[in-house]
Structure formats: structure tokens, C-alpha cells
């Protein structure tokens, strides 16, 4: 084709889970001036150049590094302009439990890089993406931001908050709502906590993220239904809280190494090594 083709930017993609919102901003020229009403976690997928100013400082040239983590605290004045821009992930709605901090950009954090790229994949796949997985990635990004602001891992004292009684309450909530859309934010709300604090306390107390634990309970219910003789695996998937049969099969195989249909067949005709 001859001539020049004007490239149209992709639309902004936005998903909200609980109180957290993630936006995938396309690569395009921009100019923005605002006071941050909420703290913002940013992640630059592309390099970009322009000028910016934070917290009333003078306007300076900038060059954003690809895969750089950024942070704008609540109440911070921001001005930024770029003639070309770059694809950018913005996450808001989180609580840093008083961590506060100063604005920064271009922080290299390998775990955050992996989580940000995973979040982008889910944003591009939405609404087919699993909301629980989406929430887990956003929660992990916020956890990494917390580490960057504090300069160290979050204190282990939060694990003491997750008592046996509270863990029992978490189990009760999960079991009662397993066949519904259940998020980590829902669990945190039931306990009167921010999702970030709850996630850190739960991980430190159990060695598992809330997201992973919810999936464990979903798989356990599915196995119980299969063992009880359930034949319709699509119905099992829904009863265990999975969005689809395909998603159920994928997670089941990832967790257990076999598909639900293979497990069911093995229950009907046990492997010779399992027969006494």
C-alpha cells in the first residue's frame, strides 16, 4: 500500500475489582495536569520522553525506562506531557496502610515486571479473564510497591493478626460463597481490613496468598463433587465457583496434574497400583 497510514490508538481498557481499578492506557500523545485524588501505581511498558513536574517542583525533561515502576501519592500535584507517550498501566484504589512516601518512577522490580505484564494480558483478554486471577496480580503489584516505598519487606507483625479464629472465619466465608463470585476484597471487607493488609497478613500466616487459597478450596469442592458421583463436569465447574468448564479444567490440571475427566475415570476404574 502506498502513502502514509494514520495509526489509531487502541482504546483505554479499564477493569475494577473490589476497590482496585486497573487502566491500560494506549501509546499516544498526551498532556495532563491534576492533583491525585488517590494514590497511583504506574508501570511503563514502553520508553517515552517528555517533561513533567511533581509536588510543585519545576518542570523537567524525563525519559521513562521500559518496565519501570512508578508511584504518585495521594494529594500530589502532577504535570506531565509527552509528544508520543507510551503504553502505561495505572492502578488506583489501594491503601498502603499509612506508608505514604514520595513520588518516584523508573524503579526496576523483577517481580512487579512479571505481574504488570500478566495484568496487561488479562486486560487485553477481558471480559474472558478470570477476576480472581486479575485481583491477585493487582494485589501483588501493590505489595511490590509497598516494598519499594518502605525499602524493605513489610513487617512480619501483620501475621500475628491472622489468628486461628480469624482463619476459621475466612474458611467459613469461602465455603459459604464458593459458588459465587468471591474476591480477596470480599474477604477483607468481612474482616474490616484493607485488601493489601489482609493479603500480607494471610500470606505471612499461611505461606499462601488468599488468591491461591481460594483456588485450593474451589478445587477441593470440585474433587468432592466428582468423588460423590457428579457426571456433568460443567455443573461441577459452576458449583465450585469457576467461570467456565474450560477455566475449571485449566486450573484443575495446573493444580493436580490431571484433568477432571481423568480423575473421574480413575475413581471409576482405579489404577492397579491403588487397588489393595
From TrEMBL:
Keywords: DNA-binding, Transcription, Transcription regulation. InterPro entries: AraC_XylS_family_regulators, Homeodomain-like_sf, HTH_AraC, HTH_AraC-typ_CS. Pfam families: HTH_18. SUPFAM superfamilies: Homeodomain-like (SSF46689). It comes from Ciceribacter lividus. This is AraC family transcriptional regulator. GO terms for molecular function: DNA-binding transcription factor activity; sequence-specific DNA binding. Residues 168-266 form the HTH araC/xylS-type domain. It comes from the Bacteria.
Amino acid at each position: 500500500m502506498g502513502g502514509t497510514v494514520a495509526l489509531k490508538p487502541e482504546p483505554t481498557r479499564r477493569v475494577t475489582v473490589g476497590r482496585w481499578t486497573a487502566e491500560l492506557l494506549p501509546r499516544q500523545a498526551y498532556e495532563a495536569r491534576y492533583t491525585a485524588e488517590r494514590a497511583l501505581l504506574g508501570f511503563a511498558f514502553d520508553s517515552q520522553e517528555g517533561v513533567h513536574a511533581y509536588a510543585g517542583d519545576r518542570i523537567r525533561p524525563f525519559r521513562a525506562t521500559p518496565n519501570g515502576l512508578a508511584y504518585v501519592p495521594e494529594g500530589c500535584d502532577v504535570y506531565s506531557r509527552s509528544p508520543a507517550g507510551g503504553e502505561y498501566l495505572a492502578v488506583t484504589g489501594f491503601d498502603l496502610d499509612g506508608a505514604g512516601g514520595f513520588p518516584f518512577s523508573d524503579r526496576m522490580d523483577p517481580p512487579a515486571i512479571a505481574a504488570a505484564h500478566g495484568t496487561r494480558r488479562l486486560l487485553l483478554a477481558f471480559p474472558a479473564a478470570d477476576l480472581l486471577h486479575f485481583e491477585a496480580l493487582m494485589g501483588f503489584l501493590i505489595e511490590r510497591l509497598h516494598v519499594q516505598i518502605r525499602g524493605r519487606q513489610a513487617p512480619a507483625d501483620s501475621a500475628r493478626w491472622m489468628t486461628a479464629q480469624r482463619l476459621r472465619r475466612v474458611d467459613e466465608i469461602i465455603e459459604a460463597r464458593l459458588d459465587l463470585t468471591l474476591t480477596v476484597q470480599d474477604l477483607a471487607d468481612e474482616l474490616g481490613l484493607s485488601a493489601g493488609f489482609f493479603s500480607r497478613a494471610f500470606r505471612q500466616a499461611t505461606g499462601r496468598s488468599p488468591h491461591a487459597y481460594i483456588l485450593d478450596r474451589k478445587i477441593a469442592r470440585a474433587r468432592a463433587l466428582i468423588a460423590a458421583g457428579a457426571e456433568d463436569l460443567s455443573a461441577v465447574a459452576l458449583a465450585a465457583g469457576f467461570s467456565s468448564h474450560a477455566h475449571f479444567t485449566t486450573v484443575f490440571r495446573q493444580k493436580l496434574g490431571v484433568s477432571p475427566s481423568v480423575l473421574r475415570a480413575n475413581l471409576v476404574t482405579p489404577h492397579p497400583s491403588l487397588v489393595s
